[in-house]
Amino acid sequence: MKNTVRIRNGLFLLFVISAGLLVYKAYLGYEKLTAAKKAEHFYTSQQYVKSETFYKNAINNRSILYKENEIQSTYTMLSNNNKEVSALLEKADSLYRNENYSGLIKTYKSYLDLLEKKQNDPVFLDYDQHFNVQNEFDTLLSNTKKNLCKQMDANVNNEMFENEYFIAILGELPNEVYGSADKKTEELTSHFINYDERKYSLLEKSLRYNQLKKTINRQISSYHKIGLEDFWLKETLKKIEKAHELKMAALEEERKRKEEELKKAMEAEKAKDPAFQEEIMTVVNEYAIGWMSAYNQLDTSYFVHITPELLNFFHDRFEEIRLNQTIFTGELLYTEFDLDSFKYRMDDEEESVELHVVLTMNSASYAEGENYEMKETANPWYYKLIHTNDGWKLSERKELVHFNYSNTRIYEFAY
């Protein structure tokens, strides 16, 4: 009796389990059919992103076989579009986080090319709209612009200008980031004017002119590459060139001044050199002796150490004396040199020396047949001598009114 009850209970339990399994399978079948129907509904109404979830549920439900190939094919197509758009956004985000802004811009351009090709693909366009791809790129590119502008400020604050990669990247950013092509030009021009004013106010203090000019020309080239007119840098370059010209002129003036000071110091030193003074006084004494002989004989051949121009002067003077029938007789007693009067000059055209000397002599001028008496006279003279290939030559002479006897050297002549 007990065994019969157990068997009956077991059969009943088995029946319940079987019935439950049948009900569950029927439920799963209903779920699959429902998912498939909803997937088809959203797909036909072009709500492809929503339909993907239901296609996925339908394909994962194996309780019954229902349009398996069609569902699998459609789901694969939808999934591929999902992956393509998702991968694009993940790549863009990764490039931005790694500060690979050039790569980000290239990816955005690739996206625009892809969007152009997919204009007639409603599935791709639905995924593009669902993920707000354009908005995501707009945000990343806008943040890129802000980061690059911050880098400009960092360069100025740190006074480090070796890396100016942001110029090219700001130029590469699409016009839409700025609003339009005109607004892009206006905004970049404003940014770079501000940046360069601060930059070159610092570099003018640390770089030499040639380095500064090279830096500006290199930056002008960078602006040309992104299509910007660099009028402000050209003005900066003109200002720097003008400042350099003024600086060079001032330095040249200072160089000439110091050169002139050195030259004058050397000239003064040589003028005071006893050996040099002795050389000049010897030349003057030899000239004075010749001068006295020439006047006594009215013969210019006695002159020594004089220039041709001065020799011609004496030749005319002697002719005048002959015409006046005047006779000169004299003897040189001594010469007295003012040692403080020596002035030596050396320039590109000539080397010269100036000095004061007193010629003291016994002399008389008279007409032929007249009685005469020798009289001692002392005549102070200014002499200028120039240096030639034949040595020192007297080129100028004039009588003086005053003579300084405080520091002199006397040479006496014996006959």
TrEMBL record:
<dbReference type="Pfam" id="PF25155">
    <property type="entry name" value="NTF2_YvbJ"/>
</dbReference>
<protein>
    <recommendedName>
        <fullName>YvbJ-like NTF2-like domain-containing protein</fullName>
    </recommendedName>
</protein>
<keyword id="KW-0175">Coiled coil</keyword>
<feature type="coiled-coil region">
    <location>
        <begin position="233"/>
        <end position="272"/>
    </location>
</feature>
<dbReference type="InterPro" id="IPR056902">
    <property type="entry name" value="NTF2_YvbJ"/>
</dbReference>
<feature type="domain" description="YvbJ-like NTF2-like">
    <location>
        <begin position="280"/>
        <end position="396"/>
    </location>
</feature>
